[in-house]
Design brief:
By secondary structure, this protein is of the alpha+beta class. It is 28% helix and 28% strand. The protein has a single domain, classed as Alpha-Beta Plaits, CATH 3.30.70.100. The longest helix is centred in the first third of the chain and has 11 residues.
């Protein structure tokens, strides 16, 4: 039986445009794989603006228990990657946790 996500955990951070490709590659190599091994699904989004680039990581979870097991504590706590301070404009201070009201369609 396929699990349906009930919770989305959302992280957002921004970088300078000249560092955006480097951060995308770094986050894809270091930040996303642990999520892919544990979450039901993961999305990495990128928004290029004139003077900054925003990244949004959304991970989908069956329940708070599984998300808490992954984060080994409070899932609202931000866990920064080793090079985040170097590559991001500032270290994000919060994570958003959303209850999924309309789940994705299973195909």
């Amino acid at each position: 039986m396929t699990k349906v996500p009930t919770i989305a955990r959302i992280w957002r951070g921004r970088t300078k445009p000249e560092l955006a490709d480097e951060y995308e590659a770094y986050n894809s190599a270091e930040g996303i794989p642990p999520l892919l091994r544990t979450a039901l699904d993961v999305q990495l989004l990128r928004e290029d603006r004139e003077d900054e680039t925003w990244f949004t990581t959304i991970s989908y979870w069956a329940d708070m228990v599984s998300m808490t097991a992954f984060t080994k504590g409070d899932p609202r706590q931000v866990h920064h990657l080793e090079r985040d301070a170097e590559l991001l404009c500032e270290l994000p201070e919060r994570i958003q946790i959303h209850k999924i009201v309309v789940p994705p369609r299973l195909r």
